[in-house]
Design brief:
Blueprint: H1 14-27, H2 35-38, H3 40-60, H4 67-81
Length: about 80
């Protein structure tokens, strides 16, 4: 018996599309924003990911006397994401 797996391609996400829209509007001179703001969806997402990884690392290494509370909160978030 063979099993087949189906992979669905959902296309690009919201952040890449928003970034492309901002770049297009900047290059066509519809908006006169700084390039920092044009690319902000990308670096904003990167900053959030770095903060999340840092918080998770800090909590898992016992960075504070309250690290157990933080670890419990992260475990709850992980369990919610699995449902």
């Amino acid at each position: 018996m063979s099993s087949k797996s189906v992979v669905l391609y959902k296309g690009p996400g919201f952040i890449p599309l928003l970034t492309l829209l901002f770049i297009t509007l900047k290059l066509t001179e519809v908006i006169d924003w700084s390039w920092w703001w044009i690319l902000s969806p990308m670096w904003g997402t990167l900053i959030l990911i770095i903060l999340w990884v840092g918080l998770y690392w800090w909590a898992s290494t016992g960075g504070s006397t309250h690290s157990r509370d933080i670890q419990d909160a992260l475990d709850k978030i992980d369990r919610l994401g699995k449902h």
